[in-house]
């Protein structure tokens, strides 16, 4: 039992960080843009309409606020860890130094599935918007090459989804500075597009569309909050970049909290205007923001929004895949996954083999698997990670009370405990199918841990 709960030394972790070979090139602005790049995408351009129509109605704004509060509480916990243990790996690393190896492995295993499925799901959404954009120019790609088997469209492969993943993989394999430069440009574009929608849409809001405000009741609002958690996926990815930041103790907390604040504000404004422009029952479409502008006769602006949506979803794809590689890189470096996953390219200073392996697997999932059901696992994984990081920060305060912290969570242990309980409450509103799939994945993780990771751990007796 003691070997299952063995913990990494924070002192050794910090020494390891000083000896690592990843390039430290990022600053607070890069991290903020990285967070915004991850958060604003599928959630604002796709989920807003579906959740309004099926779960929350105009009370979608309350769903976003509840999810935002849960994320903000978790963000404080991430920020404290990032300021005191600035190591790649995010909640996996934080759990390793506080709760023990088996919990660290399982949350790392959980994050790998979360990020991998999110990469594939976001690529599928990108493919849909890309096809819609081409159709606007009179170009129609054959359905046999634009949808996965079992999606109901007669397809055999989603080729655009595969291509975009390979392009992102090539970019990430060359280096994080090059990737963030591209990300920053795309983030500026999509923020401009969202501001255009807000400034235009506000003149078409009809208050009568907000009545009834909560047609599905409180239960619908909570279900909506758990569903739109997918929209917040990514701010925790900022923490995975800690070893590539110039001043991680200062810049990582700034990046996490500022990106979450910006995105939560935009989500609330967009959901309020969207449900005010269009009756909520008509928003069950794959492109609700574009649809709303077309609904009020702003067809030319709708085309601009489509370009912004493609840009926005591309940045999500880039950051989520980056986070997946950094988590598996950290687990490999600790001996819990094969050594090749933590091999650094001599020229690019990136986990080159890991990046391409991740890209290939994600591309195959996106190209050949219908992710309608599996995508819900992403929310479960995110909530599980937030729960553990909230518990871990309480443990860290007790085990390392004198550890230097550039940022401290206020009202410990009350605030982290509220964060954990709120995340668990949202998890209970997810479907039985999601819970079964999550338990199966954790079961597979236990097999991998006892069959490989425990024997190869760098902390083995």
Automatic annotation (TrEMBL):
<feature type="transmembrane region" description="Helical">
    <location>
        <begin position="256"/>
        <end position="280"/>
    </location>
</feature>
<dbReference type="Pfam" id="PF13520">
    <property type="entry name" value="AA_permease_2"/>
</dbReference>
<feature type="transmembrane region" description="Helical">
    <location>
        <begin position="185"/>
        <end position="204"/>
    </location>
</feature>
<feature type="transmembrane region" description="Helical">
    <location>
        <begin position="434"/>
        <end position="452"/>
    </location>
</feature>
<dbReference type="InterPro" id="IPR002293">
    <property type="entry name" value="AA/rel_permease1"/>
</dbReference>
<protein>
    <submittedName>
        <fullName>Amino acid permease</fullName>
    </submittedName>
</protein>
<feature type="transmembrane region" description="Helical">
    <location>
        <begin position="377"/>
        <end position="397"/>
    </location>
</feature>
<feature type="transmembrane region" description="Helical">
    <location>
        <begin position="354"/>
        <end position="371"/>
    </location>
</feature>
<feature type="transmembrane region" description="Helical">
    <location>
        <begin position="59"/>
        <end position="79"/>
    </location>
</feature>
<keyword id="KW-1133">Transmembrane helix</keyword>
<feature type="transmembrane region" description="Helical">
    <location>
        <begin position="155"/>
        <end position="173"/>
    </location>
</feature>
<feature type="transmembrane region" description="Helical">
    <location>
        <begin position="31"/>
        <end position="53"/>
    </location>
</feature>
<keyword id="KW-0813">Transport</keyword>
<keyword id="KW-0812">Transmembrane</keyword>
<feature type="transmembrane region" description="Helical">
    <location>
        <begin position="409"/>
        <end position="428"/>
    </location>
</feature>
<feature type="transmembrane region" description="Helical">
    <location>
        <begin position="91"/>
        <end position="109"/>
    </location>
</feature>
<feature type="transmembrane region" description="Helical">
    <location>
        <begin position="216"/>
        <end position="235"/>
    </location>
</feature>
<feature type="transmembrane region" description="Helical">
    <location>
        <begin position="300"/>
        <end position="323"/>
    </location>
</feature>
<keyword id="KW-0472">Membrane</keyword>
């Amino acid at each position: 039992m003691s070997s299952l709960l063995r913990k990494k030394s924070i002192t050794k972790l910090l020494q390891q960080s000083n000896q690592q070979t990843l390039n430290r090139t990022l600053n607070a602005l890069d991290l903020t843009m990285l967070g915004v790049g991850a958060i604003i995408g599928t959630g604002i351009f796709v989920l807003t309409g579906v959740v309004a129509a099926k779960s929350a109605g105009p009370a979608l704004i309350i769903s976003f606020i509840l999810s935002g509060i849960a994320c903000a509480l978790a963000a404080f916990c991430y920020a404290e860890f990032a300021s005191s243990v600035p190591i790649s790996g995010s909640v996996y690393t934080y759990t390793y130094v506080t709760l023990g190896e088996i919990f660290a492995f399982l949350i790392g295993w959980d994050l790998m599935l979360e990020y991998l499925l999110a990469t594939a799901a976001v690529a599928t959404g990108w493919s849909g918007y890309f096809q819609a954009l081409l159709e606007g120019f009179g170009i129609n790609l054959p359905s046999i090459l634009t949808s996965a088997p079992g999606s109901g469209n007669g397809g055999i492969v989603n080729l655009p989804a595969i291509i975009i993943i390979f392009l992102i993989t090539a970019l990430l394999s060359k280096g994080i500075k090059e990737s963030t430069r591209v990300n920053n440009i795309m983030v500026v574009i999509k923020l401009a597009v969202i501001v255009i929608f807000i400034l235009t849409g506000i003149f078409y809001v009809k208050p009568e569309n907000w009545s009834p405000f909560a047609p599905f009741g409180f239960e619908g609002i909570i279900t909506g909050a758990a569903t739109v958690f997918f929209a917040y996926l990514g701010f925790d990815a900022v923490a995975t970049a800690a070893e590539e930041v110039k001043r991680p103790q200062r810049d990582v907390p700034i990046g996490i909290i500022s990106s979450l604040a910006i995105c939560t504000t935009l989500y609330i404004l967009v959901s309020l205007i969207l449900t005010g422009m269009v009756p909520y029952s008509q928003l069950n479409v794959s492109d609700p923001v574009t649809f709303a502008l077309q609904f009020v006769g702003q067809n030319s602006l709708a085309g601009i929004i489509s370009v912004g949506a493609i840009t926005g979803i591309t940045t999500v794809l880039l950051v989520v895949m980056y986070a997946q590689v950094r988590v598996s890189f950290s687990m490999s470096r600790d001996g819990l996954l094969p050594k090749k996953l933590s091999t650094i390219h001599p020229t690019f200073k990136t986990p080159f083999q890991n990046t391409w392996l991740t890209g290939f697997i994600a591309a195959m999932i996106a190209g050949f698997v219908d992710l309608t059901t599996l995508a819900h696992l992403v929310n479960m994984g995110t909530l599980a990670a937030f729960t553990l990081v909230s518990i871990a920060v309480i443990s860290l305060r007790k085990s390392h009370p004198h550890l230097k912290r550039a940022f401290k969570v206020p009202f410990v242990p009350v605030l982290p405990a509220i964060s954990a309980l709120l995340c668990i409450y949202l998890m209970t509103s997810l479907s039985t199918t999601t819970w079964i799939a999550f338990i199966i994945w954790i079961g597979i993780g236990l097999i991998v841990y006892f069959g490989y990771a425990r024997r190869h751990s760098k902390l083995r007796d």
